[in-house]
Design goal:
This protein has about 170 residues and is an alpha/beta fold. About 5% of the residues have low confidence. The strands form 2 sheets. The chain has a 4-stranded mixed β-sheet, with no helix packed on it. Strands 3-8-7-5 form a 4-stranded mixed β-sheet, with no helix packed on it. It contains 2 helices and 8 strands, in the order H-H-E-E-E-E-E-E-E-E. Strand 7 and strand 8 form a beta hairpin. It folds into 2 domains: about 45 residues, no CATH class; about 110 residues, Cupredoxins -  blue copper proteins (Immunoglobulin-like, Sandwich). The structure holds copper (II) ion (CU). Copper (II) ion binds next to loops.
Length: about 170
Amino acid sequence: MGLNEKIIFLGILGVGAIVGVISYTIFSDLPPTPGNTKSIYRQDLPPQPTAQASSSTESKVDPATVKADATLTILEGASTQGNPDYDPKELTVKKGNVIKVENLDPIPHTVTNGAGPNDQNSAKIFDTSLIMGGESAILQTEEINAGEYAYYCTVHPYMTGTLKIE
Ligand SMILES: [Cu+2]
């Protein structure tokens, strides 16, 4: 090995050592431990929905007896990715309409506004929460502003649909 190669070799070793020390220094602070609020892994919890916002979409009424203006069906087999899931995929209702969400699948599903679990607005506008297999839930639209809302299933985020409020 010539002198140049030795210098390069030692240089690479040196860079490696420096990177190691820097990494150790930075990352040794990171494991989330009680009292350490500076971890880069820290994620503040999303603000809790206000009582009014959450009550507006919660099903206070018995889905079996309520008169719904529209029905959104979760089809059997929807939990398998690629299968038809929500029917219709795009549902349009008038503001104030009551939507009955029928889960025909034996597996629990939700209808939750948002593009997916990482959407910051997820579940802030409407959320049926878990609808057990064969059961139904009621979505009230009275307090939802007119617009087009993407929704998904929190259990199977590949299940997606659109709700339009006119
Ligand atoms: Cu689902």
